[in-house]
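Encode chain A's predicted structure.
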Amino acid sequence: MYTLIFDSNGELWHTRAEELGLDYISMPYYIDGEEYYYDLGKQTDFKKFYALVRAGNIPKTQALNPEDYKKFLTPYFERGEDILYVSFSHQLSGTFQSLDIALKELKEQFPERRCTVFDTNSISLGAGIQAEEAAKRWKQGASEEELLAFLKDFTNRVCVYFTVDDLMHLKRGGRCSALAAVAGTMLGLKPMLTTGGGGGLTVLAKIPGRKKAIRTLADKVAAELTDETCSVYVVDADCKAEGDWLRDLILEKRPNAKVVRQIVGPVIGSHCGPGTLGVIFVGDKRPVPLDKQ
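Encoded structure for chain A:
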């Protein structure tokens, strides 16, 4: 017997996770001197978080420690359940070092139990859509081996595109050099980014102007969406009107698309900043970074 879990950096809305029977590991963030754990929007005060960031408060994220992971995983092992964990990109956080330590210690206590970790090489709903589609099959009785085979193929078809409004947030997180951030801001450039096959963030294009960047996101969905049975997620970091406009642009071009609107959570929002817009959908293959073309 095994159970399927993911983490809150996968950002599926809490009602969807509950509907699918998915448990999740809550990831921490800090702002204005307080520590929080993201609960997939169940009790999150998004308005307060983004207001604080816009006012100049700098949020921070932190890796969980081994004891955090052991506290979460132990009850499953005590019930005799194995675990398949669909995780966000390992390249984007040091938290998985703590997970490895926790699993080694738990193996000594529960030698018969197993936790298999599948690295989605993605973030936000790029990871969440993989957990969502895996959960559909899990509920239908798929074996762990069948789910892993599905995920190894499906992960290569998940398309993630996003643009940020302020490059300085990426600069603080080490995702953009200070020079590039200043130059890009002065020139009004809006980078289009994606999660590459290795799980890191890569720049696909530098687009002049916000409106053109939003239209480009819609064009990407229109051109590359191949599976309309899966949701198309349109996410915004406290820029709802622009997110709604992006949704409408997509539906003009692909009226049968199952577009789901959602706000970006505080952990991801800590790195990308207010004004970020993104699209996540299923195509033929992942985007190819500029340096791989």
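Residues 95-109 form the longest helix (15 residues).
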